[in-house]
């Protein structure tokens, strides 16, 4: 059992390292292209998700029509 754990650690370490690299690559590419880091919540996807979330919350708390 101990050998199986050791065999699994290398692939898991590689996967974890690649996830960390993938997250930081976006930051450095954007900083190199624009000279500053990306502002959080300032792209089309973030704005669309904020709008969707606001609509869902408004619908959830809207008064329901009574019969």
From TrEMBL:
GO cellular component: mitochondrial inner membrane
The keyword Transport is annotated on this UniProt entry: yes
Membrane protein topology class: Single-pass membrane protein
Membrane-spanning ranges: 12-29
Protein localization: Mitochondrion inner membrane
Pfam short name (any one): MWFE
Keywords: Electron transport, Membrane, Mitochondrion, Mitochondrion inner membrane, Respiratory chain, Transmembrane, Transmembrane helix, Transport
InterPro entries: NADH_Ub_cplx-1_asu_su-1
Keyword Nuclease: no
Major location (coarse): mitochondrion
Protein family (similarity comment): Belongs to the complex I NDUFA1 subunit family.
Known role: Accessory subunit of the mitochondrial membrane respiratory chain NADH dehydrogenase (Complex I), that is believed not to be involved in catalysis. Complex I functions in the transfer of electrons from NADH to the respiratory chain. The immediate electron acceptor for the enzyme is believed to be ubiquinone.
Record-given protein name: NADH dehydrogenase [ubiquinone] 1 alpha subcomplex subunit 1
